[in-house]
């Protein structure tokens, strides 16, 4: 996670710029197709990452590989069908990351490039190799797909569930929006400080819920896309 060589930093910048650009454009374009012109009117329906990037999240993403990276504006009340439109527009972001991963997995799956999960050699410690960038493009986009679908606010998954629920349950879901955010931040904090607290609470050194929620499904998707 914190393998911060120049090569990994350069590769992460490249990958995350692509990931956030495609993700936020997918939100904006799908919302536009559903009747919401907010992003277009604000000049944010674009693949230019500067239009939607959330810089603190982007910097965290460079350090740890994933984070909340951007926020294209979506207004369901301007859509022809607010509930369905919001569901599709929000889901489009994570799906776009999965599609990016699938496309970049093709040269790895068919042997045009060999998967490289960390830079190797003296030169690659400064400049990432194409194989490493492509492999990271696949892996981080899978992570972003899975991470963003977690049902915790402010992730896309929370809104997807909200839009899919019947009205009465949606009201209950929205009422507990802030609680879900605390759960997310708690899981993130435990993933970092859990090992340090293992001497006091041994189970914290054995169970990382965030890794279980993200790592295991991400790994299975990676194996599937690479045909391993």
What does this 3D model show about the protein?
By secondary structure, the chain is mainly alpha-helical. It has one domain. Helices cover 66% and strands 0% of the residues. It contains 10 helices and no strands. It has helices at 6-33, 38-41, 55-64, 82-109, 121-124, 130-148, 156-164, 167-175, 177-197, 209-226. Helix 1 (6-33) packs antiparallel against helix 4 and helix 7 (156-164) packs antiparallel against helix 8.
Explain briefly what this protein structure is.
The protein is mostly helical and 228 residues long. It contains ten helices and no strands. Helix 1 (6-33) crosses helix 3, helix 1 (6-33) packs across helix 6 and helix 6 (130-148) crosses helix 10.
Low-confidence stretches: none
Backbone shape: globular
Report the average pLDDT across residues.
87
For the CA atoms, what is the radius of gyration? Answer: 19 Å
What is the β-strand count? Answer: 0
Total domain count: 1
Q: Could you state the order of secondary-structure elements as H and E?
A: HHHHHHHHHH
Structural class: mainly alpha
The termini sit apart by: 23 Å
**Percentage of residues assigned to helices:** 55-70%
The main sheet comes to:
none
Which strand-content bin applies to the residues? under 5%
Count of DSSP H/I helices: 10
């Amino acid at each position: 996670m914190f393998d911060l060589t120049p090569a990994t930093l350069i590769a992460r910048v490249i990958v995350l710029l692509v990931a956030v650009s495609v993700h936020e454009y997918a939100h904006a374009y799908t919302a536009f197709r559903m009747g919401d012109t907010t992003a277009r009117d604000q000049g944010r329906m674009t693949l230019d990452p500067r239009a939607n990037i959330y810089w603190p999240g982007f910097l965290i993403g460079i350090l740890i590989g994933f984070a909340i990276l951007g926020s294209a504006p979506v207004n369901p009340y301007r859509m022809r069908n607010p509930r369905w439109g919001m569901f599709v527009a929000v889901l489009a972001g994570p799906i776009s990351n999965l599609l990016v991963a699938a496309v970049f997995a093709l040269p790895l799956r068919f042997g045009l490039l060999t998967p490289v999960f960390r830079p190797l050699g003296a030169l690659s410690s400064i400049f990432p190799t194409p194989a490493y960038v492509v492999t990271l493009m696949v892996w981080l986009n899978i992570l972003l797909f899975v991470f963003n679908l977690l049902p915790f606010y402010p992730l896309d998954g929370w809104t997807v569930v909200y839009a899919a629920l019947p009205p009465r349950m949606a009201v209950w879901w929205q009422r507990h929006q802030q609680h879900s955010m605390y759960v997310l931040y708690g899981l993130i904090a435990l993933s970092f400080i859990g090992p340090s607290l293992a001497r006091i609470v041994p189970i914290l050194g054995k169970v990382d819920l965030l890794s279980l929620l993200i790592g295991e499904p991400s790994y299975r998707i990676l194996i599937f896309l690479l045909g391993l």
